[in-house]
Amino acid sequence: MYGDPAALRQLAATIVTSADTVRSDARGAVAEAEATQWQGAAADSHREHVQAVASALQVIATRLDEAAEDLQAYAARVAAVQAEIATAERAVTQYFEGALSALESGASSVVGSVQQAAGGVEHFVLGVVDGSSGGAASPPWQSWPWSPDNPPAPGSKDWLDLGNLAFGSGFSL
Predict the structure, then answer these.
(1) Alpha carbon separation from 142 to 26, 111, 139, 147 (Å, rounded)
(2) Are 157 and 83 within 8 A, CB to CB?
(3) Residue 137 clears pLDDT 90, i.e. is over it
(4) Could you give the 3-state DSSP secondary structure of residue 147?
(5) pTM more than 0.85
């Protein structure tokens, strides 16, 4: 799935150049065989053989063109997937930042309210906020393979899976 679209396109261009060279060489061989002054049955057989080889070379050139087209199409698919991954990475990073900010804000609000109302129970509230008392809501990524502290590697296709976790199974870009 991964690859370098620019390198793939360059390879496709090299293959097209090779196909053009094969075609040109085939035409040149036929022209040379036809231009020879040699006469007789052996000369005719030689020209027929050169023509057959040239026809086979034309088929090879066509197959090279098809391979180059397939490689170009693959390069486009790789570029599209890389763009999707980059978009998912940005979206999930923003999601994590927003969720962490909301959790921190909510935790600060709870701690502040309880400290004002019952200064002596701060240790209980802090236990709830950090999850050690079992009473606090856990962040949605607690059961995910990735979290704000442990995101996928930059550019990894795992960002697409994480996007589905963060935004639901219908996540699309």
Answers:
(1) 65, 22, 6, 7
(2) no
(3) no
(4) strand
(5) no
Per-residue pLDDT band for 25 (boundaries 50, 70, 90) equals very high
Nearest-angstrom CA–CA distance, 8 and 24: 24
- Can you tell me the distance from the alpha carbon of 114 to that of 19, in angstroms, rounded to the nearest whole number? 77
Backbone angles phi, psi at 150, to 5 degrees: -140, 65
Q: How far apart are CA 8 and CA 15, in angstroms?
A: 11
| % of the chain at pLDDT higher than 70 | 77
Closest by CA position to 103, among listed 65, 67, 130, 79: 130
Q: Which residue has the higher pLDDT, 61 or 116?
A: 61
In the numeric block, the tokens 């020209």 are attached to 47
- Is the separation of the CB atoms in 71 and 18 below 8 Å? no
- How deeply is 164 buried, as exposed, middle or buried, from its count of CB atoms within 10 A (0-12, 13-18, 19+)? middle
Q: 109-123 pLDDT, tens per residue? A: 555 555 555 544 444
DSSP H or E run through 83 = helix 41-117
